[in-house]
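so i finally got all the pieces together for this one. its four components total, 412 residues if u count the protein bits. some of the lines might not be protein, just check the labels. i wanna see the whole assembly predicted at once instead of chain by chain like last time, that was a mess tbh
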Amino acid sequence: MRAEVAATVQDLVLERGYEETTVDDICATAEISRSTFFRYFPSKEDALFGETADAGEHLQHALTARPPSESPWVAMRRALDALIEQYEGHDERTRRLTRLIVGTPALAARHREKNAHWQELLRPEIARRIGADPADDSDPRTHAVIAAALGCVEAALTAWTASTQPQPLSTILDRAMGAVTEPPGQTSRHERSPGPAPSVDGRTTR
Amino acid sequence: MRAEVAATVQDLVLERGYEETTVDDICATAEISRSTFFRYFPSKEDALFGETADAGEHLQHALTARPPSESPWVAMRRALDALIEQYEGHDERTRRLTRLIVGTPALAARHREKNAHWQELLRPEIARRIGADPADDSDPRTHAVIAAALGCVEAALTAWTASTQPQPLSTILDRAMGAVTEPPGQTSRHERSPGPAPSVDGRTTR
DNA sequence: CCTAACATGAGACACAGTACCAGTAGTGGC
DNA sequence: GCCACTACTGGTACTGTGTCTCATGTTAGG
């Protein structure tokens, strides 16, 4: 039932845009009252994001499941594989939705807020791998590594949705995360080539 | 005059919180009408952020002024020095405001949205330094480097506002940005020491 | 049959933000 | 002095989100 309403929201929003879709429109289409809508979802945004809300937990589990020997950056990259697949799985509809999200300021903000929530979920495991105290708020490193990695995800998603015939999302993410840790200069011979970008993962261990 | 209203907003918001301050309250205190308020500021959030809105341009100029030989990451770090000083200059009031911003979801979202806008400003220069085509939306690297760096800034600001007797913001940012590019393992002998963190700026050839 | 949850609907309300219209002060030309 | 012109200001009504309260079924258990 909840899912049914959520599907209605997606349909309407994909059709006419987010701002142009009022809650009353949704209620009329789903044949429910405003009261019922807001009992199901705390806000209009949540009706659109609610389905993917628990992706953070999946990410957290995937991260803790990585071998302890992996560096934080590599472990993050590998843990993101599951998330990537989820995005690429549904393919066309998900890409349209993602494009709509990055193109709507209110939704993009919500998306980033979701990332901020993931911060808290991933913090313990990343802190452990860094060797930092998770409770030490004056140590910015854990937060920084997670924010940087999630920034790369955002960059990859933007690039993915921008091109009509995109490369695999995993390849794009490899390029994004590789660009952060491997600044050009010593690796400039690769950077300009259109071929596959250097991967951040340890290809040997995978 | 505009600044006067903005100061009123800051006072009220610092006193009772953001959600608890209505624009009617602001108008009553500033002795203006709602119409006038919304002619000065497009939204309540902007009345709080408006003052620092042009920091993005400053950052852009600082970035293009860096020597072309510097890597993107190093140039970003050095360009952020100006922004850092701006934060540390006003000190106590700025820190209280920053803490309020990171603690209020709506304001935190707005802050990240501002970062997203800076993306566009910094993109040409970072793309140049990476050797990427700024117009190529399918290349995530430029976006990734900027998002990662701004994520480090967010991490540094969070750590800065969290501790009652904080270290210098520049030191915190060095630690944050260093943690992303220098994963522990080969540099673990430094990471646990409470002393000054390894700086990301060019101490040798970079 | 009765009642105690429970979901739903209906209406009033607070607040942000927009649009439009009217008054009012300053300014320059005649 | 008078008349337009302009810009700033205030007032009012409106849309839309989200909250709250209350009334109305609806159903399972006694």
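Residues 32-36, 39 of chain B lie near DNA strand D (CB under 10 Å from a C1').
Chain B has a mean pLDDT of 86.
anyway lmk what u think
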